[in-house]
Amino acid sequence: MEDPEQIVTAARAWIGTPYVHQASRFQAGADCLGLIRGVWRDLYGREPETPPPYTPDWGETGSEELLLQGAMRHLRPVSRMQPIVAGQVVLFRMRAGAVAKHLGIMVQGGEAPRFVHAYMHHGVVESPLSIPWRNRISARFRFP
Description:
alpha+beta, six-stranded antiparallel beta sheet
């Protein structure tokens, strides 16, 4: 069973980790998927699968939603009707017509929601879930 406080603590521990595409090494380098993978390891130990190679392009188009498919295999979907709360994994589609390509972990819900994520030139950071970010949410999940 998931423990939101444990998830938030694990996610925030990664803050300051430099951005490195396809990496998932605590304080050495991670991208957004690497952050999720690292938190998974903190919670459960071994990862359920090794991700295939992928591009860093948030605007990538195509018909294969590899990140969404992977999330559906290993995480529990959250209904859009449910509130956004700490501990949820958020999947973002950065522009219309693009595949969903960015992930984060909610660390605070309520009136001032915040999430931890990794992106190029910034590394792992905590950001407000502002309206532009909220409008890009493609799906939400819970850790199993």
